[in-house]
Amino acid sequence: MSIVTVYCVFADEAEARRIGRLVVEESLAACVNIMGPCRSFYRWDGQVEEAREVPALFKTTADVAERLVQRLSLLHSYDVPAITVWPIDRTLDDYEKWVARSVLQP
Predict the structure, then answer these.
(1) Where are the beta strands (DSSP E) in the chain?
(2) What phi and psi values does residue 62 have, to the nearest 5 degrees?
(3) Spatial separation of the C-alpha atoms in residues 43 and 81, rounded to whole Å
(4) Is the pLDDT of residue 14 over 80?
(5) What whole-number distance in Å separates Cα of residue 31 and Cα of residue 7?
């Protein structure tokens, strides 16, 4: 079983905390790390925008990642949330086993 990190950016810390806790409670992620606020520049509707956002890293299995992505998309306040899945090249065996035990089995 392999694990992945799902990266997602939220409008604010409250949203990141609410959604992060929920998906851990639902066993879609073993854990979530909510990072400090960042400054984002992006193009939206033909304009360059600037916003303060809160990134988060979710740890889950490759088998559950698509369900997590869909759930994050459903719960997220953005029309087009930034949600990406990053493969994990290497980790401790015990960590991988912990993640696998902590999420839903497909």
Answers:
(1) 3-10, 31-34, 38-44, 47-61, 83-87
(2) -60, -35
(3) 13
(4) yes
(5) 12
CA distance 10 to 16: 6
pTM of the shown model: 0.94
Phi, psi at 65, each rounded to 5°: -55, -45
What is the residue type of 102?
S
Residue 106 binned pLDDT confidence (cut-offs 50, 70, 90):
low
Domain residue spans of the chain? 3-102
3-102 belongs to which CATH class? alpha beta
* φ, ψ at 99 (rounded to 5°): -60, -45
**Residue 94: other Cβ atoms inside 10 A:** 8
Q: Please state the φ and ψ torsions of residue 32, each to the nearest 5 degrees.
A: -135, 135
pLDDT tens-place string over residues 17-60: 999 999 999 999 999 999 999 999 999 999 999 999 999 999 99
CA distance 81 to 55: 11
